[in-house]
Every structure is written in structure tokens, then in C-alpha cells.
Amino acid sequence: MKFRWSFVLLLALAQLVSWGSLYYSFAVIAPPMGAELGWSRPAVNGALSAGLAATGFASFFAGRIIDRYGGRALMTAGSAAATLLLLAWSQISELWQLFAIWIAMGVVLSTVLYEPVFAVIARELKDDYRRGIIVITLLGGLASTVFIPLTHLLEESLGWRGALQVLALIQIPFGVVLHWLVLRNGATKALTAPITAAPKGRVRMAIRTPVFWLLAISYAAHSFMFTAVSFNILPLLVDRGFAMAAAVVAFSLVGPAQVAGRIAVYALERRIKVALAGTVATALPVAGIACLMLAAPGTPLLYVFAILYGTGMGIKTIVQATAAPEFLGREGYGALQGTFAGINYAVQAGTPFATALLWQATGRYDEVLWLLFAVTALSAVAFALAVLLRPRDAQALFRGP
């Protein structure tokens, strides 16, 4: 079957916009918003934590909905809700309003980010699903590189409220319209004729295996590291004596490094196994965090960190979307990945608030760095054990007699 390039590339464009405008924009909007309204860093990050907790809860259901009905209605509605929530965010004046908006936004994230689109790809592309996921993450990996400077420019020109209003308008063509049109064929059929994509109790059977829990630990530790770095890297580097310009340059290298890692996986798609890709992907950030701990102003180690961290992140996104079906079987992809996503977002929910409290308690980021190193190493060790314990015939693992 011919690979559906237009279908995949348009969904990839929607991912770039969704990640950039709904997730990465928070790191840029939060400081000026908190300064204007007089809110502390833990208070602002608490709203993000509440939102990610809502994402984790909603992710359990989003994957199951896509397994049965496709993604058209769910992802279109999510993008429409995102538009309204960004507009509402631009009008807030009380902290409780930020919490309310971000709890609702958390539900929206479960319908428009990687997990739901990966479930759509697995449902629509069948045996080509791995290539489709790689292509989507190639473009999606540029979200921080595109939207962090764009949001910063909008905030400087229009203020943080005006920046949010522009981001809301971007959702209409690149979220609402795009999801409605691109997902039309596959989802329409599914909406009128629901299918059962997995044996009953598929997730219950999976969680009885040690491989499931080792993958869950690896993914959760990785999610903690990713969230902590995403929302703390700029103040962390400034706290360690780096100029803001150098910090921004280093952070801007992460996106291209992610894409480079994914290009390597794409080029070697038929030769590299997910076990090897995952081992590399979890080892590189360990080396990267070690470089960050040793980095000092004027040394290249900061940029080495960005490249190692970004490359590992890029590969790990693909691994996280493909390791479970390869190690545990492909039936019920959406339900199984939704379960992992729920665990990951639960961990992410506590990360911004916990790291902000740790920084506030100690007045420095050294302890945060040691914590990042420990959880990154845990992610690598847990994945290596999952590789060692994976069954030889994963597709037959849950098949009936």
C-alpha cells in the first residue's frame, strides 16, 4: 500500500502548532504574566501541574475513543476548545481563573498532542504506522524552535495577553479546520461503524507483565526529566551564571537535535530495532545531564548538553510510541498508549510545582540537577531491563488459545 504522505504531513503540521502554541508557550507567557499579576513561580506552575494532571486522567479515555471511533470529532473539538481557552486565558485577573483554564486545557491536550495522533496513525496506516509516527515527530520536534521565539516576539510586541490572542487565532486554520478535513475519510467510517480494536481486558492483561511496568517507569522518569528541563532550563542556566543569550541559543539547539535524531531513525527504519533505538535514546540524556552539571560559562559543555539531550529526546518520542506494541503486541494500541500517557502526565503534573518548590527551598538549582540526573539514569536502566525481559512473540502474547 502506498504511503499516505499528504495525510501524515498535514497531521504533522497540526502537531507542530498544537505543541508550540498550547504547551511550549506557557514557559514564555508565565514570567510576564506572574510579574504583572503578582503571582509566585510555584503558584503559576501549580496551574500547569493541575492541567497536566487533567491530561493524564483524560488520556485514559482519549485513546479508547480513537480505537473505536477514529480521531476526527475528538481532535477537531479539542482544537476548537483550545481556541476558546487561549482567548479566556488572555482575559484573566485572578489565580483561580488560571487554574480553571489550565485544568480545562489539560483535557484538551489529551485530544490534540502526540498520543491521540499516534493512535490515529496506528489505526489508519496499519503496518506503516512506525514510519508515519517518525514523520510526524520530525516536524513536531520543531515546535519549541518555532514557537518559543515566536511567542517571545509576540509577547514583546503585544504583551502576554495579545500573544495569547494571536495563538488562539492560529488554532482555527491549523487545528480546527485541518483536523476536520484531514481526518475525514477514516474517521467518518469509524463514527458510523464502531470497531473493537482489542480483546476485552487488553490493558488489564498488559499490566500483569513486568515489561509493562518497566516501560511505565522508564517513560515516567523520562517525562519528569523532559518537563523539568522544559520549564526550568532558562532560569537554571541564569542561576548558574550563564548569560540569557547563551541560554536561549543552547535551548534553541534542542529542536534541531531532536529532528536530527529522528532523521537518523527514519533513515535506518528498516535496520534499527526499537530495542536498540530505545537504549540509545535513554542513554544520551544521561550523558547530556552530566555535561550540564559540569558546564560553566565560556565552556562548550552547555551546547554538548543541548545536542545530546535533544537527540535522545527526538529518538525517545518514537520509541515511546512503538516500544509497547513491539514488546506487548499491537492490539488496542490507543487504549494501551493512553494508559502509559495517563501515568506520564500524572508524573508531569507534579514536576513543575515540585521543582519550583525545591528551587525556592534551596535558593539554587544544584539539587534540581542531581534529581534530574537520578531520574534520567532510572529511565535508562528500566528500559534496558524491559528489553531483556520482552517476550519473543509479542503479537501472540495476549492471543486466545
Tally the beta strands: 0
Rg computed from alpha carbons, rounded to a whole number of angstroms: 20 Å
Strand content: under 5%
Question: What's the story with the biggest beta sheet?
Answer: none
Within the CATH hierarchy, at the fold level, what is the topology of the largest domain?
Growth Hormone, Chain: A
CATH architecture of the largest domain: Up-down Bundle
Mean pLDDT: 84
Low-confidence stretches: 185-199, 396-401
Q: Can you count the helices?
A: 16
Report the top-level CATH class of the largest domain: Mainly Alpha
Protein structure class: mainly alpha
End-to-end span in angstroms? 31 Å
The CATH homologous superfamily of the largest domain is called MFS general substrate transporter like domains
Determine the fraction of residues in helical runs and give it as a percent range.
over 70%
Q: Write the element-wise H/E pattern from the N-terminal end onward.
A: HHHHHHHHHHHHHHHH
Shape: globular
Domain module count: 2
Q: TL;DR?
A:
This protein has 401 residues and is mainly alpha-helical.
